[in-house]
């Protein structure tokens, strides 16, 4: 999957581009410390917003000023991409393999600016290019430790692992990534974890390696908030082919995890590409609307796209003749495609709360029921412990399913 279309020569003027983003968001003051993004309060956003965050490359592909994007579209969240291992080797997080997270102030300025405007961010790790942390780190715990630096640095409430080729062809790397995701989920109660992988036009929605990824998650007892496929760069002919792939993936989720239909939809998502894809497919505004209609009617939990950097018309218009990292190659007004993620994010949803464990010795939460439906933040009592639901669940026993976060003994 050619997920990251790059434009040669866009790195010059990097600092100026990032400063422009920050200035447009009303954060002209320089970021002084590495923890400043973590201390900036994020808006209390509903869960749909974390599933609606479109991808943005803040260090490449002519990053847009996000303040005007937010004002023009109502979009509140963005997914900053990508966290990778260093190009020179090592198990530590960097932006694009070149900018160390530990010393970053530029991306932190963008994060603070989005939050100052009432929004929030999620960060994506992986993508198509570069060396992934799951490849560079020796085991799940060291991989998780590297990702935890990112979560702590930017005060994240959501993180995305974009697991695709060539990484997902490496079983050891996928074991590390899934194991790390499980550790992060347990260590950061309420963290929205999404997994993004390749989509296919076949009847199962994803290919052999995608299904092996799901099998690895099942073997480790890990359930993220969302599994999203990327239905592009694989011979997709518009929205009908994308919807067919989503239905196939829905069936794959049910058969892999033993979920009923509603549970599978609630853990499913889509990540699209606007305009002309790397392989020459064309996805227009009407395709985005058709997929949005499907996603909302079937209650999928994620709807996003690659990328905001591309969400503007090429100049001069090229009528679909080339794929660019900085424009869509279709006729459009600026930020047309971001308006669709804004619609999804604004749809009714249950907020992701900050966990508030009950006082020690109190079993005040209602007893867990196998037939009841629970949503993120609900508290129950089971086996003399209080448990908090991370996301929608029914019939999953506390202590035996990762959807439940143990809040400690009571009674």
Description:
The structure is a single chain. The chain has 411 residues and is an alpha/beta fold. The protein contains 13 helices and 17 strands. Strands 1, 2, 3, 4, 5, 6, 7, 8, 9 and 12 form a ten-stranded mixed β-sheet that branches. A three-stranded antiparallel β-sheet has the order 14-15-17, with no helix packed on it. Helix 1 (14-24) packs parallel to helix 5 and helix 8 crosses helix 9. The longest helix is centred in the middle third of the chain and has 20 residues, at 238-257. The model is unreliable at 1-36 and 350-360 (pLDDT under 50).
Keywords:
single chain; 411 residues; alpha/beta; 10-stranded mixed sheet; 13 helices; globular; disordered N terminus
In short:
The chain has helices spanning 14-24, 36-39, 47-51, 66-73, 106-116, 133-136, 140-154, 171-187, 208-220, 238-257, 261-266, 285-298, 338-346, and strands at residues 55-56, 77-84, 94-95, 99-100, 120-126, 158-162, 192-198, 226-230, 268-273, 275-276, 282-283, 302-306, 373-374, 379-382, 385-389, 393-394, 404-409. The chain is an alpha/beta fold.
Cα end-to-end separation: 52 Å
Helicity range of the residues?
25-40%
Note the main sheet.
10 strands, mixed
Rg: 20 Å
Q: Pairing-aware structural class of the strands and helices?
A: alpha/beta
The number of helices is: 13
Order of helices and strands: HHHEHEEEHEHHEHEHEHHEEEHEHEEEEE
Global geometry: globular
């Amino acid at each position: 999957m050619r997920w990251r279309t790059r434009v040669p020569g866009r790195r010059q003027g990097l600092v100026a581009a990032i400063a422009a983003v920050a200035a447009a968001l009303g954060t002209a003051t320089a970021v002084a410390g590495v923890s400043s993004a973590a201390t900036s309060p994020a808006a209390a956003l509903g869960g749909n917003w974390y599933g609606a965050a479109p991808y943005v490359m803040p260090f490449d592909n002519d990053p847009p000023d996000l303040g005007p994007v937010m004002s023009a579209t109502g979009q509140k969240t963005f997914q900053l991409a990508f966290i990778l291992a260093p190009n020179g080797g090592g198990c530590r997080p960097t932006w694009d393999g070149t900018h160390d997270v530990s010393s970053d102030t530029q991306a932190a300025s963008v994060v603070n600016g989005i939050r100052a405007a009432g929004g929030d961010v999620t960060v994506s790790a992986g993508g198509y290019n570069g060396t992934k942390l799951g490849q560079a780190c020796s085991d799940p715990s060291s991989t998780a430790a590297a990702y935890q630096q990112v979560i702590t640095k930017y005060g994240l409430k959501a993180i995305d692992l974009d697991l695709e080729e060539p990484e997902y062809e490496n079983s050891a790397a996928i074991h590390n990534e899934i194991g790390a995701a499980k550790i992060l989920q347990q260590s950061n109660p309420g963290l929205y974890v999404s997994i993004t992988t390749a989509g296919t036009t076949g009847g199962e929605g994803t290919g052999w390696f995608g299904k092996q990824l799901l099998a690895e998650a099942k073997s480790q007892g890990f359930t993220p908030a969302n599994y999203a496929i990327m239905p592009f760069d694989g011979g997709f002919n518009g929205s009908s082919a994308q919807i067919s792939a989503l239905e196939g993936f829905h069936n794959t989720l049910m058969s892999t995890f033993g979920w009923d239909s509603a549970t599978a939809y609630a853990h499913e998502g889509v990540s699209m590409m606007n305009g002309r894809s790397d392989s020459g497919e064309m996805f227009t505004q009407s395709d985005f609307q058709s997929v949005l209609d499907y996603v909302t009617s079937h209650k999928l939990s994620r709807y996003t796209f690659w990328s905001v950097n591309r969400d503007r018309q090429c100049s001069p218009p090229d009528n679909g003749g080339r794929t660019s990292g900085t424009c869509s190659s279709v006729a459009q007004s600026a930020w047309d495609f971001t308006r669709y993620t804004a619609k999804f994010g604004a749809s009714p949803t249950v907020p992701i709360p900050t966990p508030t464990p009950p006082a020690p010795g109190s079993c005040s939460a209602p007893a867990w029921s196998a037939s009841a439906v629970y949503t993120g933040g609900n508290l129950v009592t089971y086996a003399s412990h209080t448990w908090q639901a991370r996301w929608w669940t029914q019939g999953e026993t506390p202590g035996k399913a990762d959807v439940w976060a143990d809040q400690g003994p009571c009674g």
